[in-house]
Amino acid sequence: MSITPRSGSSYFLSHGGYEASISSIGASLRELTHQGRHLVHTFDMDEVRPAYKGATLAPWPNRIIDGRYRIDGQELQLPLSEPKRGHALHGLALWLDFVPEDVGPDFAVLLATIEPQTGYPFRVEVRTTYRLGEDGLTTTVELHNVGAGTAPAGASTHSYLVAGGGQIDEWTLESPAQKLMHAHGARLLPGSVVSVEEVAGAFDFREARRIGEMEIDHAFTDVFGDRGAATVTLTTPDGSGVGMTWGADAPWVQIFTSDQPGIEWDRQAVAVEPMTCAPDAFNSGLDLAWLEPGERLETTQRIFAITA
């Protein structure tokens, strides 16, 4: 009897110099390479996906503080999937086994349904599409309210980008973000939104600069300026690296320098998560989508290699 790997069924994609491996649990990007060079931090096929690597985040990205929010005067309580901080983290699709809707040599369309439950009494279909092209891997996450009631919704993915080998300290980060949301205390409670210049420029990467020993785990916004797209890049001293670009459907981006002391891959990748809404949007309402029955929310991003 064959046993399905712990990361679920696998879908292998190839186009030009790019190759990708997608795992069905959480519709997760398990591996992405360009001409043999890793662009995301991978995990084993028969491994329980660690640290949300490559996962589809829906129907919310980031945190809902204390897992609580209110709709029409009713308080709803979500499972606390981040127990150390006491929050509901990264949605409900993380451990769903997505089924293939359509698969080809260079694309995979995976589908799962979030069923109504105590803390989220809505039925939302989640479709994640991965497609390789000459310009990299394009990922589209679509949320479709297929039930009754107006559903709060947000989406993202959790890709850990890799510019090269070793730790990130010597990598250069460039991000167009002009504002960030304060993250307070050990629980990373969301606070006010301020200009990156108001925090002594510590989080201002509008001009590419070395990450060094800096620790980042913040949500950024105002990422487009007068352009219709945002791009974050990571490069090594020799000029090679990786980038991610996305459009106006995701006005926020979480950047996390994977500071996880005691874990083998501590500070060996940088998570870049374009988000359709702010952290704790179920409470703040910042850029939160409210999907009427039949309505959809869609967000698209692309990961690409940078060659020296």
TrEMBL record:
Gene3D superfamilies found in the cross-reference section: 2.70.98.10
Keyword annotations: Isomerase
Record bears the keyword Isomerase: yes
Keyword Lipid metabolism included in the entry's annotation: no
InterPro entries, per database record: Aldose_1/G6P_1-epimerase, Gal_mutarotase_sf_dom, GH-type_carb-bd, YihR-like
Domain of life: Bacteria
Enzyme Commission identifier(s): 5.1.3.3
Gene Ontology BP terms: galactose catabolic process via UDP-galactose, Leloir pathway; glucose metabolic process
GO MF term set: aldose 1-epimerase activity; carbohydrate binding
PANTHER family linked to this entry: ALDOSE-1-EPIMERASE, GALACTOSE MUTAROTASE
Protein name according to UniProt: Aldose 1-epimerase
Organism: Pseudoclavibacter helvolus
